[in-house]
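User: What would this chain look like folded?
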Amino acid sequence: MNLNRRHFLAGVSALAAVPATGAAAAASRIIEARPGKVQLVSGDFPATEIWGYDGGVPGPLIRARQGETISRTLVNSLPQPTAIHWHGLRVPNNMDGVPGLTQDAVSVGGEFQYDLPLTDAGTYWYHSHNQSTEQVARGLYGVLIVDEPNSPDVDHDLAVVLDDWRMNKEAQITEDFGATHDWTHAGRMGNFIHASLSPSMDGVQTNQRLRLRLINVATDRIMAVSLRGLSGKLVAHDGMPVEQPEDFGVLVFGPAQRADIIADVTAKPGEPVQIILHERDSAYVLSELPVNGGGRAAPRGSIQPLPANPVAGIGSLTGAREVPLVMEGGAMGRMRQGTYKGQLLGMRDLVDQGQIWTFNGTAGLPEEPLVTASRGEIVRIAMENNTVFPHAMHLHGTHFREVGADGSLGPLRDTLLMDARETREIAFVADNPGDWLLHCHMLSHQAAGMKTWIRVT
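Assistant: Here's the prediction, encoded as structure tokens.
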């Protein structure tokens, strides 16, 4: 494979391991959303003005143990209302952080306390869910790790945050957050792809065992990533352990998707461990760690599964509630009209309202839920992507399994990447009461119409 590095603003940029701005913050009870400056781009570029939790990017790493309850009071020091969504956590509905559905947005100068029972171990993250096409693009996100009671034996446990920034020549974030072309096409694509590792490290040693928690926090970009100088297994999707560790090659992450990898360093001293981004026919080094002298004489041995989280099993799909979800719209789409805020509008009027995509013919959050399910009921959603763009479908409040053509069930996930013109089906147990958002996590697509909700009673 021919690897290279390209300069900033020419396409994709390489960046060595960057320390997270916030240290582990399990004891902190205040998290402030505020403007800040961060040296994102190395060299002679100035610090980038961002919006971040505690003024940094990523925000403070929050770490706690499964079974604990943590509390964070959001203090809003931004010039806009905001809220925090705790992505992937199965929390009470009023803690989910979705303005207009589960809470009011936190006003400028206001506060809101989130109390989060940590039911599941795994890799999660938190981000703004208000005006998120702008607020996430400006840097409002962070990592949340919930440790197992008995964590696997590794030498280093690293969060690897993959992000995509659109910047001008002075390394400042461009303010074209509502560009029509972005919203009608694949979303807001940046010109600086950034991999930050937390904690930062000077290097690793041969045969050391690493746990890599890869998280795509980009607003819209799909990332295809591989690892060089490591040999291991994938042990979790979206925070949820797989039953048996899986082999992997190039990992494809839609926005918001995560993967936990446990791997041994196979590179020798002088040969770096690399995180590689694949785009079209090229590959670029996003980050690398030097391999230093010393290390173990031999690898540890086989990689064991992580303990399962206490998610209700689906059992039989017989008698499950079946619900269709048809996606239309976007550039080159078939949508000619749609319902928005209770009115049937033509395509031109929808575009004037900033609504370009529909679910089942409705743009934006509908008045009625996609489905109302009784607690404990099994729900199947057949999703048909009648557009020419991929969509990363995220369900709040629970995890689901993909239903195969033969009726088999895939691993637990909270976000599913669907290709253009593709049909996929998911199933889940409706065991968390409340009103839960279902939307495309290409945040430009969400803002332009791709969202609905389910109710669990």
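The longest strand covers residues 156-165. If you want, I can go into more detail on any region.
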